[in-house]
Amino acid sequence: MTDTSSRPVPRVPRGFRDLFAPDLAARRRMIDVIRQVYERFGFEPLETPAMEYVDVLGKFLPESETPEGGIFAMRDDDREWIALRYDLTAPLSRVVSQSGADLPSPFRRYQIGPVWRREKPGPGRFREFYQCDFDTVGTASMAADAEACIVYADAFRALGLKTGDFRIRVNDRKVLNGVLDTAGLAPDSAPAGAAQRLTVLRAIDKIDRLGPAGVRELLGKGRLDESGDFTPGAGLDQAQAERIMAYVEGGDRGGDRAAVCAALRELVGQSPAGLEGVAELETIHALLDAAGVGGELVVVDPGVVRGLAYYTGPVFEVELTFEIVDEEGKRRPFGSVAGGGRYDDLVERFTGTKIPATGASIGVDRLQAALSASGRLADTRDAGPVVVTVFDKGRLADYQRMVTELRAAGIAAELYLGSGGLKKQFKYADRRASPVTVIAGGDEFDRGEVSLKDMALGRALTADVKDRDGWLKQPAQVTVPRSELVAKTRELIERARVPSP
Amino acid sequence: MTDTSSRPVPRVPRGFRDLFAPDLAARRRMIDVIRQVYERFGFEPLETPAMEYVDVLGKFLPESETPEGGIFAMRDDDREWIALRYDLTAPLSRVVSQSGADLPSPFRRYQIGPVWRREKPGPGRFREFYQCDFDTVGTASMAADAEACIVYADAFRALGLKTGDFRIRVNDRKVLNGVLDTAGLAPDSAPAGAAQRLTVLRAIDKIDRLGPAGVRELLGKGRLDESGDFTPGAGLDQAQAERIMAYVEGGDRGGDRAAVCAALRELVGQSPAGLEGVAELETIHALLDAAGVGGELVVVDPGVVRGLAYYTGPVFEVELTFEIVDEEGKRRPFGSVAGGGRYDDLVERFTGTKIPATGASIGVDRLQAALSASGRLADTRDAGPVVVTVFDKGRLADYQRMVTELRAAGIAAELYLGSGGLKKQFKYADRRASPVTVIAGGDEFDRGEVSLKDMALGRALTADVKDRDGWLKQPAQVTVPRSELVAKTRELIERARVPSP
Q1: Both ends of chain B: CA-CA distance in Å?
Q2: Which of A176, A184, B173, B358 is deepest in the core (most CB within 10 A)?
Q3: Is the pLDDT confidence value at B65 over 60?
Q4: Which of B3, B5, B11, B31 should one mutate to test binding to chain A, selecting the residue with the greatest count of A CBs within 10 A?
Q5: Rounded to an integer, what distance in angstroms lies between the CA atom of residue B198 and that of residue B177?
């Protein structure tokens, strides 16, 4: 009927994907756990629109220098540019600027939802992905930053990760600024200083990918990569670069936070910013100790700087320490799956008034991929519905009664709605991971009975059975009075839940 | 610091909105209920991207004749048009065309998520709203259509609506086509016939808004509305129009589905399409009876046609029958909050092969607005977190220990992170709907004690208390040994849950 040439090709835009039941079930479970942790810490939900005005979003993407770069933008009816949100922090700043007087202060909110980035897609890199953010707006207290680390520690353990599977790394931008002060760089307040410091920051942020040699190049004249692209460097001399590398590689000292803080105090010399940053890290360390969160979970690591320009104080990151096999078949540590930091100037963009804030995010899709790739995500497929098979199409109303009774008892159940005989129906039930199928033909109806097949038991035997009589002889199948349909089905479902020895 | 003139104005695009904790808590509860019902019926989750190619979405919006009308569209990197999905049915058709071989057949999926429509926003009409869809693809069986009605009946009752608060109305497009056949209209297969029949359909769909007189005008020459806009009519003569009005106003006959079916059988005469439609309604009626779903819940109503062109058979709609006070202060029935139907030709657009399908949707935002406006949505605000107040900033680590203990016991708790004295902290706790606040100053620490304030009890007395000593004398406040912090807090929370007589 349809003209072939005018048929649309069924496909999704580049970097987008469909998610099906098993992945969705696993993600929902993860999100439920994360939400429960956030709520236990007193964060309340917020939902902002998918679309924001582009000037509201600002230009804070790490990879983009232009307002429309990296985002999905279009013109609204009023000709102003609107775009899909690329994170949940810019919308939060907008909400606080717009509705602050109606909100509790501090405002502690969480938001879980998709964000969209018009970046180059790749294996495991999508243009639409979920973020789970929690932020506290309206407090300068380091207790809020310490809490971000504690939220992480609780959330990742609640997600089933063991101590040692992940490490929360905390650092402070002020310490880096102090080190840059003592290395003789121009201050952040000078335009050239700000640009140079941002280049240094982004160089350090690449240490996991490029290693210390690559970072040294980016701190100096610049770096030529394998593809021939040249990235200009920060233009530091060798002594400056080495001073910074000594800082970056100060390491986590086996989780001895106090030792790292002491070493940093040496490195920042008399820099006021640097001393302030070290004091902040020491406060966070003390509060973590009070909460019983030790160096096996949270380390102070000068190598963590985060790529975003807007962080002003503590920054945090969660890395998974176990190795996975990547798309190219190589074993490698999975790396960072969560991060955040303090951004005391972001709300000021709108209001002109400083409103200190801190917060962090969990990238649940990346985390799910990591847990799945490392075998840490159990086979989380939910059991499917009981399938009431249709042996005699003239008895549809009778089958409908059965399915209604099962549902009324809280048992997920469906009537087989496709075509084909019992064999096809059992195959369908297998694909749906049905625990039990219900079978009733003329004989059963005459005797007031119904047959139930335990699909879990049955799956092993299915292959070599040819006919319906064969089915009926299997031990996985029982025939009971019609009145016992619900009770016997429930019994078989319960039996399937107990793992066989 | 920021240049005032360059400050963005914090605002959201027209037709978008922020949602805060109380609304989100209510919506989440509703969605959880709906999802449980869908899963009990054997539907499994699917999540498609926010963005689709425009040719994949097609042009099935009721109000729009052009591909870009009514949708938020932009060009992708490959210069092809992409847009935010405007419903969840077009993406489902795309998924089945693209991945059908990997899916169970029939494919029973639900999807809950936002859709975006670039239509004129108004009170209660947003450009971003949630839909909760469930569909069965790959079955021509009327059992699937009957089930859609049963899902509705179960879902709306599970949401707390009483029989009589809502009515599920079912009809069949084939019956309407049969009536149009007998009235002498050109067949659907003729281009002019299809256009005329669509005009008739849209006229009937407006009966709730325009009344019978308005529909009569639209069936005839056309209608001039109050603003002076003229809508061209279907051009039927009076006898044809009256025949159709007799059909439309055939009514639900107090829920006597068999009687309505019998009357429809008369009206369609010898029209094959009409007779097929009546037989479908009779099958649905019988299956509803088998499921114990009577005329008090589901009626056959010829007035229901649904505005979308793509429906091919049964169509359903849920209307709320109670009155609400609208934006203009008028009492009126709230109207339709859910609907759907059979669309046997939609997948064929992609594949050229007919894959019969049926499904329906619940508009959860509209439903929430209706329940809220009619007082049927209980005050669903969740209790907030326990707030550990900060009396002595030097004791932050001690307060951190308290909040950690409470959380470890599963109690939502937070450390007060703002500035200001106890009074301000209590005010904050009130805004957060905290059940209990924890207070500890020098005296408490010296004696190894902690004070707890029952905020629910305390709220009544707050106004005339001036100082901290005053607080401590109130009966709503108790002082207990520090070791009993968790147990006593839990006791006070439990007490607050029991409504006072």
Answers
A1: 56
A2: B358
A3: no
A4: B11
A5: 11
pLDDT at res. A67: 46
Amino acid type, A173: R
- How many angstroms separate the CA of residue A438 from the nearest CA in chain B? 14
What's the mean pLDDT when you consider all of chain B? 89
Please report which residue ranges of A139-271 form alpha helices under DSSP H. 142-158, 173-182, 191-205, 207-219, 238-248, 257-268
* More confidently predicted of A391 and B124: A391
Give the residue-averaged pLDDT of B167-181: 94
Q: Any alpha helices (H) in B59-125, and if so which ranges? A: 89-99
Chain A nearest C-alpha distance from B284 (Å): 10
DSSP symbols for A296-328: TTEEE-TT---S-TT--SEEEEEEEEEEEE-TT
Cα separation, A128 vs B263, in Å, equals: 52
Interface contact B401-A42, CB threshold 8 A? no
Sheet with A107-116: list strands edge to edge. A44-45, A107-116, A128-137, A357-362, A331-342, A314-325, A166-172, A298-300
pLDDT per residue over A442-467, tens digit each?
999 999 999 999 987 766 555 455 55
3-state secondary structure of B411: coil
A205's tokens = 């942020």
Element housing B137 (H / E): strand B128-137
pLDDT confidence bin for A68, thresholds 50/70/90 = low
d(CA A192, CA B354): 65
- Closest by alpha carbon to A13, among A114, A132, A117, A88? A117
A19 contact residues in B (CB cutoff 8 A): 46-47
Chain A partners within 8 Å of B148 (Cβ): none
Over the stretch B426-441, which tens digit does the pLDDT of each residue have?
999 999 999 999 999 9
Measured between CB atoms, which of A42, A387, A400 is closest to B385?
A: A42
Which residue is closest to A50 within chain B, CA to CA? Answer: B128
Measure the CA–CA gap between A215 and A231, rounded to whole angstroms.
11
Whole-number Å distance between alpha carbons of A92 and A109: 9
For testing contact with chain A, the best of B19, B32, B35, B40 (most A CBs within 10 A): B40
pLDDT at A474: 57
Per-residue pLDDT reduced to its tens digit, B271-289: 999 999 999 999 999 999 9
The predicted structure's pLDDT at residue A139 = 95
Please list the residues that pair with A437 across neighbouring strands: A387, A453
CB-based burial of residue B438 (10 Å sphere; 0-12 exposed, 13-18 middle, 19+ buried)? buried
Q: What is the C-alpha separation between B247 and A115, in angstroms, rounded?
A: 49
B-chain residues near A28 (CB < 8 A): 45
Q: Tell how strand A107-116 and strand A44-45 pair up.
A: parallel
First to last CA, chain A: 57
Beta-carbon separation of B44 and A397 below 8 A: no
Amino acid at A41: F
**Is the Cβ of A128 closer than 8 Å to some Cβ of chain B?**
yes
Check residue A501 and give its pLDDT. Answer: 39
Distance CA A343, CA A88 (A): 13
Give the pair of three-digit tokens for residue A140: 């300068």
pLDDT digits (tens, 9 = 90+) for B341-373: 999 988 898 989 999 999 999 999 999 999 888
B327 versus A358: the higher-pLDDT residue is: A358
B77, B349, B417: residue with CB nearest A141: B417
Quick check: B130 contacting A, CB < 8 Å?
Answer: no
Question: What tokens appear for B447 in the block?
Answer: 């004696």
Distance of residue B486 Cα from the nearest chain A Cα, in angstroms: 14
Amino acid at A355: I
In chain B, what percentage of residues exceed pLDDT 90?
Answer: 67
Element (H, E) at A424: helix A422-431
CA distance B475 to chain A (A): 26
